[in-house]
Amino acid sequence: MPHTDYDIPSLTAEAVDLLSHLIAIPSVSRDEEKVADFIEEFVTSKGLHPQRHGHNIWCQSEAMLPHRPTLLLNAHIDTVRPVSGWQRDPFVPSLEDGALYGLGSNDCGGGLVSLLQAFRLLRDDDSLPWNLVWLASCEEEVSGKGGMESVVPLLPHIDCAIVGEPTGMRPAIAEKGLMVLDVTAHGRSGHAAREEGDNAIYRALPDIEWFRTHRFERVSPLLGPVKMTVTIIQSGTQHNVVPDKCVFTVDVRSNECYSNQEILDEIAKNVSSEVHARSTRLNSSSISPDHPLAKCATAICGQPYGSPTLSDQALMPWPSLKLGPGESARSHTADEFIRVSEIADSIGKYVHIIREAKVEK
User: Which residues contact 227 (CB under 8 A, 6 or more apart)?
Assistant: First the structure.
């Protein structure tokens, strides 16, 4: 179908209607069965042939040609729990002054429905440089093992991906990773009134100060330095007992210059407390600005940047960029919304990028 025949207003109206239905189905992380059922039924009604694993739904081009690389179009179906400040019912879609309000409208329903429309429009276009796979994944908000991580081995070979997180349709070609550390300093208990015991809080203080002041050598031009923040401290049982254990939590946001394991190794060499990483699997991700997909997205959508927020890109073993309608600052907020004009803009730009970006197999 020539791109001049694309009816963006009709595609947008259908996308907004679909998103309204999705908002009305609560889909908090790990409770996505009903919304996954709805999506599976919807895409089937549109003549697609979805595959499913758990609450992940994907469709692919009818003819997956071996000489063409494969582009994944991904967005997630789950939401966070609604915060207390909502002035509207978060599960009742409300269209007001060109903005659609509702939980998940911005993060990441707008990207989900826009990528679906682009996929439906182009999946059988023989002139495309790609095979296409559209994936609606679950458990993104909790980085759950039942989401992206479980479905990666089941997909066809993927060469690169667009992740439809809200970026204002600016290409995010790098994003920070995440590692959470539980750090334990050990001492010896004693009576606080006497000179006895070995205070574990005092043992922890030099290490806490190290986390506050240490600077990793490699700084990313897109993401800046690795950032470490002590966020929780727990110690002691009562006022007159010298504590024998102090446990504190450190939030680590990695850049693409280090793997999480490299950061963990450097930390272990510099602190005296025990350090346990809850996981090292959520690494920083990036795509070269010279990659054809990134170059095309930049030409169409503007200056690339580095994103501080984590997405399913962290679990993708192939190059990916984050590009979607809406604004990241609206995510996880009360009265979340996305503008209809943003959905229309993203559908047109997705189609343009998919048609124009060319990657050698």
Answer: 176, 252, 253
Closest CA to 291 of 359, 353, 215, 361: 359
Sign of the torsion angle spanned by Cα atoms 86, 108, 223, 152: positive
Amino acid at 151: V
pLDDT of residue 170: 98
Q: Mean pLDDT of residues grouped by 10 in the chain (361 residues)? A: 68 98 98 98 97 98 91 98 97 98 98 98 92 98 96 97 98 97 98 95 98 97 97 97 98 96 98 98 94 97 95 95 97 97 98 91 67
**Tokens in use for 111?**
């990207």
CA angle 261-283-51, nearest 5°?
A: 130
Task: List Cβ neighbours of 360 (8 Å cut-off, separation of 6 or more).
Answer: 69
Q: How many CB atoms lie within 10 A of CB 251?
A: 15
By three-state DSSP, how is residue 34 classified?
helix
Rounded to 5 degrees, what angle do the CA atoms 53, 54, 56 make?
A: 65
Amino acid 3: pLDDT: 44
- Per the CB < 8 A criterion, the answer to whether 207 and 250 are in contact is no
Q: Which residues contact 199 (CB under 8 A, 6 or more apart)?
A: 187, 242, 243
Specify the pLDDT at position 23. 98
Q: What is the pTM of this model?
A: 0.91
What pLDDT, on the 0 to 100 scale, is given for residue 1? 34
Q: Is 230 helix (H, G, I), strand (E, B) or coil?
A: strand
From 128, 130, 125, 149, select the one nearest 138 (Cα to Cα).
Answer: 149
DSSP secondary structure letter of residue 156: P
Question: Which residues, in sequence order, are bridge partners of residue 233?
Answer: 248
Euclidean distance between CA atoms 292 and 104, whole angstroms: 31
Location of structure tokens 């059922």: 37
